[in-house]
Design a protein that fits this description.
The chain is α+β, with helices and mostly antiparallel strands. It is built from 2 helices and 5 strands.
Length: 90
């Protein structure tokens, strides 16, 4: 299954394509909570939630004092914009 062009808003991607995209980014789906995903990079790790109207990202222990940083990205954003924002790190 191929993905739509990267300029396409996420709300125009069927769920299986969003899941495929997350896997391509190195994310792993939680086996019990299927809307939850995790990704780990050398300098950060994050949890992603596929919510009804947005993707919620929580960067674990990413703040100056070790607190989590949480951000939300609407599905109206393009896949490219979300990819650049989420996977560039906190």
């Amino acid at each position: 299954m191929s993905l739509p062009p990267s300029e396409t808003p996420l709300y125009n991607h069927p769920l299986p394509q969003i899941e495929q995209w997350l896997k391509q980014q190195g994310c792993e789906q939680d086996e019990k909570q299927l809307h939850c995903w995790r990704v780990q990079r050398p300098s950060w790790q994050a949890e992603l939630w596929l919510d009804i109207e947005q993707i919620i990202v929580r960067y674990v222990n990413a703040g100056d004092s070790g607190q989590d940083i949480q951000r939300a990205f609407k599905y109206s954003l393009s896949r490219r914009d979300v990819e650049q924002a989420v996977f560039s790190g906190p």
